[in-house]
Amino acid sequence: QAVVDFERLGEHAAAFQGHDVGFCCLGTTRAKAGADGFVRVDRDYVAQAAELARAGGCKHFVLQSSRGADAQSRFLYLRVKGEVENLVQAVGFDRCTILRPA
Fold this sequence. Notes:
- Pfam families: NAD_binding_10 (PF13460).
- It comes from Mystacornis crossleyi.
- The protein is α/β, with parallel strands linked by helices.
- It has helices spanning 30-55, 76-90; strands at 21-24, 60-64, 95-99.
- The protein has a single domain, classed as NAD(P)-binding Rossmann-like Domain (Rossmann fold), CATH 3.40.50.
- Helix content is 40%, strand content 14%.
- The radius of gyration is 13 Å and the shape is globular.
């Protein structure tokens, strides 16, 4: 287990090296983090972790998202979830699984 500082995620690239499969269930709530904090955690941190995982050799990335995720949604939560799905898919993993629980 590696403990990383998400504000300095790039400094922890070694923690993402040598893994075939990556799982991401990272998230917060707008109530806990505010709108900007929610976007930073649920989109920015996740996208950066996916990029580091791919650079470290990860072939299959599994992302927990949300039912109704849509980058065009007028609702912040669903829009951010849709945006991060698009960002993770664009990283270029051999396989990308997106789970959308209710």
